[in-house]
Each structure stands twice: as C-alpha cells, then as structure tokens.
Specification:
Layout: E1 6-9, E2 14-21, E3 24-27, E4 38-39, E5 41-45, E6 48-51, H1 53-56, H2 59-62, E7 66-68, E8 80-82, E9 87-89, H3 91-103, E10 114-119, H4 125-137, E11 142-147, H5 148-159, E12 168-175, E13 180-187, E14 191-200, H6 205-225, H7 230-234, H8 244-259, E15 264-273, E16 276-285, H9 286-310, E17 320-324, H10 331-341, E18 345-346, H11 354-365, E19 386-390, E20 394-395, E21 399-407, E22 413-418, E23 428-429, E24 434-440, E25 446-454, E26 460-471, E27 475-476, E28 479-480, E29 485-491, E30 496-503, E31 508-509, E32 511-518, E33 530-537, E34 548-556, E35 569-576, E36 582-588, E37 593-599, H12 608-631, H13 635-656, H14 666-708, H15 714-723, H16 727-732, H17 736-755, H18 761-768, H19 777-792, H20 796-808, H21 813-820
Parallel strand pairs: 1-10, 10-11, 12-17, 14-27, 17-18, 20-26
Antiparallel strand pairs: 1-2, 2-3, 2-4, 5-6, 5-7, 8-9, 12-13, 13-14, 15-16, 19-21, 21-24, 22-23, 22-25, 25-26, 28-31, 29-30, 29-33, 32-35, 33-34, 35-36, 36-37
Length: 830
C-alpha cells in the first residue's frame, strides 16, 4: 500500500516540510540556508519572487512589496496589492508559493503527488478549504488536512518514550505565530482521541508584535515627530507609510524573541518616515512587555479552563500540558499555565517542529488515493475477487490480527507474506470464505504485507498488496469535527427558523447521513417561491445568524418539473469528507427530481460596514432587554446584558477607527469578537428562555397529573408514562425545541383527557376566569354567567359548549405570528 509520507506545517510565520520513512522522520533543510524553517514571507523584486529569509531582508528596503502573515486571512476575500508586479494576490495564491518553495527542499528524485498539510483545529470549513485549494494550486494531486493539536500530540507520544498503562487526559496548548488552539486529548496505551478543542484564529505571537508597535514604538515616533493618528494610518493601504507597518512588526518580533531569554532588550528603530530618516534606540524590559501582553495570555488561559470545565473535569484530572508553537518560549506563558492548572507545562519536544513531526507520522500511515497505474491496451485490471479486510493501521504491539472476508466461488485458500520476506504464513484453507491470522511486525517500522487468494489447484486468483501496519506509532482516532454542522429549518410553532443539528461537534470525520424532512410550504412549478437548503457551521443551540453558512442550495419553482406540495417528503443526503468538503444531495420524491452540489467554499467577504450593521441589529435587542429587566428589578441579569452591550459598543468604536482598506487583520479579529458577543447574548437569553420552558413543562405536567388521578382509562396513563419516560434527558439537554415538543405532547394528552368527559370541563372553565384579554369581553361575560348556571345545575354537557365558546374568543397569538412569518422568510423545510 502506498502511503502519503510527506507532511507540511504551513505556519503563519514559519513553515516546514518532513517525510516519514519506515518509522524515521526527516525534516528537510532549506538548501539555501540549511535551516529547517522557512519564514512564511514573500518579496517581489521586479521579475524575481523571493521566499523565506531573503524576503525578510527586504523589509527595511522595500516593505510595500513584502507579503507576510497572510495565513490569518485564509478564507477571506482580502488581497495583497504588489506594486512591483502591479497585481493583487490572494492569501491562497501566496500560500501556494510557500508550498511550492517547500517542495524545492526535497530532492528532485522524490515524487510529491500527495501531502498532509496542517491547519489550526479551530479553522472553520471555509478556512480549511482555502488551505486545501492552496495545496492544489501548488501542484499537489492529493491534499489531506490534519489539525495541528493532533499532529503535535502524535509527535509527543511517538518520540517521548512515555508508557501509558491507563487512560490519561492531556492538554495540547498550541500558541503559534498567528493562531491559538487548546485541545483536550484522551490517551490510552495504543491511541489518541481528541475529546474537545477551542481556539482563536486571530490570536497569536503576531499580536504581541503588534502590541509592541502600537503601544511602545508608535507613541515614541509620534512624540518625536509631532505626528497624530499614526497607528490607524500605518495600517492603511493608501497611507504615506506604505510598508512601514510590516517593517516595524519585524523590529518588534526581534524584541519579543530577545525578551523570551533576557530581562531587557534595546531595540534600534532606523526607518524612513515621510521621506525622512528616523533613528532612535529604545529599552524595553520583560516586565513592561509582560504587562502589555498579559490580557492576551489570560485569554489563552481562559480557553484551557473552559475546555476542562466543559468536559466536567477537574484540574487534578489533567495529567500533562504539552506546549506547542513559538509563542510558548515566553516565560509568562509557562508560569500562568502552572498557576492556573497546577500541571507542569511540558516543552520537551521542540515547539517549532512538533507539528510537522507529528503530521509526518500521520502521513506515514495514511493511504494515498493517488495511484500510478500502468495502462496497457486501454485495459485497467479489475480485482478477480471481492474482499473486506480488518486490521489496525497503527499499533504498539509486536503482532497484529488481520481478518478478511473473501467473496469468490473459486477461492479456497490464502497466504500472507511480509514484504521484506521475514514472514510467510504458508497456504491455509479459508473458513467459509473468511480468514483470521496474527502476523509478526518489525519494530518501529511500516510493515507491508501481501495476501494471495488461491483456488483449489493452488493457482493464485488475486493478490491483495494494500496492507500496511505501522508498528510503534500511536494511532489517532480520526479527526473530530470542530463545530456542529446544522441545517436551518422552519419552526412553524414559533414562526421563525431554527437550527437542527446534523453532525455534532466532536464527531469523527468523514461523516455521512441521510435525513428526511417535510415540505413546509407549497412551491408551484414556474413560480418564484423557493425551497432553501442552508447548511450552517456553528452552535446548534444558537441563532441561525450566529453561524457560518457553508452550503446553500436554492430550488425555485422554475427548477421544478411538478408542483412541490406542502407535506410531501424531501430526502437530503449530507456528506462531510475528512478534509471538510461538503456534499449535498436533495431528492424531491413527489417531483422525482434530484439536486446535488459539492461545496468547497474558500473565501468569505468581511466589510467594516457589514459588521457595524450586524452589531446595530443585536444592540437594539440587548438594550430593550436591559430596560425591561431593570424595570422588573432583575439587576443581576441586566448587568450580564450590560457587559455584552459594552462589548458590542467597544467593538463598534474599534471598527470606526479602521479603514476598509486596512492591511492588518484587525477587522477579522473584530468580526470574530462580534460573533462571540452575539453567541454570548444568545446563550444568556436562551438560558432564561429554557428556564421559562422548563417552568411551562412542569405546569403542563401538573395539569395532566391532576386529571389522571381521577381518570380510570389506562390508555391515558400509558400515554403519560411514555411521554415522561426520557424527561430527564430532555430537560438536561438545554434544547428549547425538545422541551417544547414535550410540552406539546403533554398539552395534547391534557386536551384528550378533558374531552373524554364533560365533567372534566369544570377545571377548564374555572381557569378561563383568570383570562383578561378576550376579543369580545361582553360576549365572554355573558358566557361566564351561563357557565355559572350550568355548574349550579351540574349540566356539564352545556358547560362543554360554553368553554368552546370562550375558547373561540381568545386572541390567536399563533396566527399573528404566522402573518409575520411570511413565505419568503421560510426555508420550506420542517
């Protein structure tokens, strides 16, 4: 079996390439400088494109033709204008240039058709697809993505010679140049499993550099040259300070590295500003630097605490914290982790090369889908027998069980041979077309085997040569989905749309599911009405607007051969590949039509104006809720809302201080902050709403129990037991839609009990007396008088009809909501 073998850590500030070969990892050196790392920096000099260390040398001379930190804009529509070539280049195109340069590290005789490229665990689908697109643009035929914490954990587990005899919980703290991830890993004696992860794609060492520039260097320049508003202008594409931003970032980065090892450093600022040379030296102390970056470091600590809390663990249950990424060299980070978690921060593995090392282990066990077939006479040989094999691809044992099921009328026996000639099972008979055999493994190597299937005359019918078992390496139990994948559907009872989870966060990729929905509206053939399939990545309990749309199919009446009638079935098949491609297949049974699409979106647009508009929309709801809760004296709750309001306003102010052509990634950070604040608002209001739903559930349950105590019909008792059977799970789910569904079931049972006997309408009539908003109060008063007379006479049949009359006078809130929930607001799915 051919494995991928090659792996690339495509980093924000530095990138590396490595190869797996029989248990040994080789990290390639740059043939020009013999360094393993390649700075993710590109310089354009006329017709020359310079990548890596040499590109950094031009920062002081020609910064406006230098591109760096572009990984943080992966998946966006932002581009970099290069004056030297008079061209705009996207983050994908720039990343492809880095990947091509890394290919040059490898000897010419090596074939790099397939590669594993690492990505932050918190990368969304669009960012992941952008990375994969860069790989194909660089000339790779096959690109497999691997989450960086998984790679780092594989590197640590496979090189540290630790012995794990029982389950352990590890934290991987991955703080790189541009992104931050924290992952909770469950480890046993043979494999790793990612339990949970959190992260921030706009938090990294580059932010520390930026803070030094913003808070220390720029104020100094402004003071010396009597300049104003320099920080804002510095980052604008159209500013007079073209390229100076990146030049100062480089100076700040060197200061940061110095302060990782020394208590103070002196930086030299020698730059051209407005056609004049500016030269100053400046002393920065570690204490001053740590005070500056402390809020950012605390953000990472809060991520650790959150991932531990979310999984109902205690700090004492964390066995190890593994440090990955260049930013972890900072003493403050190690100190704060020990203080917050109480576990030694382990940096025994090189933080800068751990990701590519682990990715190479993964690549060495990952079968390549790219095959070099030799085609003769346009005839590709097909297998002579059908077979299914089962075995561990990675194992720490010195022997492994291979089992197989062969489908062949002529298959009589089998033979397993190790490729190096060191093992031969001999010819053995199949047992009802199956076999099971333990095979010995060479330690610390990739063991290849071929399996022959023979007929009764000992002639070889077919040879299976795709078996490869990696001995000595930890296995990873697949890659987890970092966020819920949901479908937006109509909630007709609430007259709005909501999210329904399709694949839950943490599910192991790849994923495939077929679901059946019902058309919630009629779409006539040739009409402009639409059926919308909107797949969203985000919290399943959140608002549809708080997630990221990753797949959108709109089927209009003009696409239909027949009318789509309300209530008919719609079959939807969803598939998410290991590299996060989304495939959607929609089958309309009543029309006998199929619609399918594959989504590999690699760009999304973000504008300052759009972010501001979204904040304004939510801000109004937040302020209304604050006013309402203050009037009700719910001061604690209103303070929580106030914190969100302040956060949104601060984000708005920060947005007003940047331009749409800002060359930094501040607007993406602010967009990320905005989404988190909206999610916080959604969580806060949802919790209160859930409490209200639980209260309503208990009221409905009490009403049913009251009537059941007097009810002899066993059918009602059995229905009640069935409804409350999974009560605990529904209440604890925190899902308002599940709780509402239970309330609906209880209410329907309540009405059934009431209707089963005229006498049961007594309590219904008495409850209606507390209602004050009948549509015709005079008519209601008259019915109440008639009801009192019916009660006195014990005329319960008449009382039933009086209750029906009163019920008809109740305002129909549901109908009012339905009026607002117009056809074009619906997805058409329920």
């Amino acid at each position: 079996m051919k494995t991928i073998n090659f792996a690339i850590d495509l980093g924000t500030t530095n990138s590396l390439i490595a190869k797996y070969n029989d248990g040994i990892i080789k990290i390639y050196n740059n043939p020009l400088g013999l360094k393993q790392t390649l700075p993710s920096c590109i310089a354009f000099r006329g017709k020359r494109t310079i990548i890596g260390d040499k590109a950094l040398d031009y920062l002081a001379k020609d910064a406006e033709n230098i591109c760096m930190l572009f990984k943080r804009k992966m998946g966006t529509q932002d581009t970099y204008f290069i004056p030297a070539i008079d061209k705009e280049l996207s983050p994908v195109e720039l990343s492809a240039l880095i990947l091509k340069e890394l290919k040059n590290f490898v000897n010419d005789e090596e074939q790099l058709g397939s590669v594993v490229i690492t990505i932050p665990a918190s990368f969304d689908t669009i960012q992941s697809n952008a990375t994969k697109k860069a790989g194909y643009l660089a000339g790779f035929k096959e690109v497999v993505l691997l989450q960086e914490p998984i790679a780092a954990c594989l590197a640590f587990a496979n090189t540290s010679n630790i012995v794990v005899t029982e389950k352990q919980n590890w934290i991987v703290y991955d703080f790189g140049g541009g992104t931050f991830d924290v992952a909770l890993i469950e480890v046993n004696e043979r494999e790793l499993k990612v339990i949970d992860n959190l992260g921030d794609n706009y938090l990294g060492g580059a932010d520390f550099d930026s803070l030094i520039v913003e808070k220390i260097i720029v104020p100094l320049i402004e003071e010396k040259l009597s300049l104003f508003n320099m920080w804002k202008d510095l980052k604008s594409k159209t500013t007079l300070y073209k390229g100076l931003y990146f030049e100062l970032l480089k100076i700040a980065e060197e200061a940061k590295k110095e302060l990782s090892h020394h208590e103070e450093t002196e930086i030299e600022i020698d730059v051209d500003i407005n056609a004049h040379n500016f030269y100053e030296t400046l002393l920065i102390t570690r204490a001053q630097f740590e005070d500056l970056i402390s809020p950012k470091v605390e953000q990472t600590i809060s991520f650790i605490q959150e991932v531990i809390k979310n999984n109902q663990l205690l700090n004492s249950q964390i066995d190890r914290v593994i440090l990955i990424g260049g930013s972890t060299y900072l003493p403050l980070i190690k100190k704060r982790i020990v203080e917050a978690v109480g576990v030694e921060a382990n940096s025994s593995i090189d933080p800068t090369s751990a990701v590519v090392l682990g990715a190479a282990y993964y690549a060495g066990s990952k079968p390549s889908m790219v095959t070099d077939l030799i085609v003769e006479n346009d005839d590709i040989r097909k297998p002579a027998v059908d077979f299914n094999l089962f075995y561990e691809q990675n194992t720490r044992d010195l022997e492994e069980l291979i089992t197989g099921k062969i489908t062949s009328k002529n298959g009589n026996s089998f033979r397993i041979m190790r490729n190096d000639g060191g093992y031969d099972s001999g010819i053995k008979e199949l047992d009802n077309g199956a076999f099971s055999e333990f095979v010995p493994l060479l330690e610390g190597r990739l063991n290849g085997f071929k399996i022959q299937i023979l007929n009764q005359d000992m002639d070889v019918l077919d040879t299976i040569s795709s078996v490869a078992i990696n001995q000595g390496s930890y296995n990873v139990q697949g890659q987890p989905l970092p966020n819920d994948i949901c479908m937006e559907i109509d909630d007709l009872d609430a007259s709005t749309t909501r999210l329904e989870v399709v694949f839950s966060k943490g599910s192991i990729l790849p994923l495939k599911k077929k679901i059946y929905k019902t058309a919630s509206k009629t779409i006539l053939r040739q009409s402009s009405s639409n059926l919308i399939i909107n797949i969203i990545e985000g919290k399943s309990k959140g608002l549809p607007s708080s997630g990221l749309s990753i797949g959108y199919i709109e089927i209009s009446g003009h696409d239909l051969d027949e009318d789509l009638i309300k209530g008919t079935d719609i079959e939807i098949e969803l598939e998410v590949t290991e590299s996060r491609d989304l495939k959607i297949n929609v089958f309309l049974q009543s029309c006998e039509q199929e619609f399918k699409n594959v989504f590999s979106e690699s760009e999304r647009s973000i504008s300052v104006h759009k972010i501001t508009m979204e904040i304004n929309t939510v801000l109004g709801d937040v302020e209304n809720l604050i006013s309402m809760n203050i009037s009700e004296e719910n001061f604690e709750y209103s303070q929580l809302l106030e914190a969100i309001r302040v956060g949104l306003i601060e984000t708005q102010i920060a947005l007003s201080l940047i331009n749409d052509d800002d060359v930094s990634d501040v607007k993406f950070q602010l967009d990320d902050k905005k989404r988190k604040l909206i999610q916080d608002f959604d969580d806060l209001t949802r919790n209160k709403l859930i409490a209200s739903e639980i209260e309503a559930y208990n009221e409905s349950k009490t009403s049913v129990q009251y009537h059941l105590d007097k009810e002899e019909n066993e059918r009602f008792h059995d229905l009640y037991k069935r409804i409350i059977l999974n009560e605990r799970e529904v209440i604890n789910s925190g899902n308002k839609y599940l709780i509402r569904a239970k309330i609906k079931e209880l209410d329907e049972l309540y009405y059934s009990i009431i209707k089963s006997s005229d006498e049961n309408f007594i309590s219904y009539f008495l409850n209606l007396k507390f209602v004050t908003d009948f549509s015709d109060q005079r008519r209601a008063d008259k019915l109440f008088k008639e009801g009192e007379k019916a009660l006195d006479k014990k005329d319960y049949k008449s009382l039933r009809h009086i209750v029906y009359g009163l019920f008809a006078l109740l305002p129909d809130y549901a109908k009012e909501k339905q009026k607002k929930f117009k056809d074009d607001s619906r997805t058409g799915l329920s």
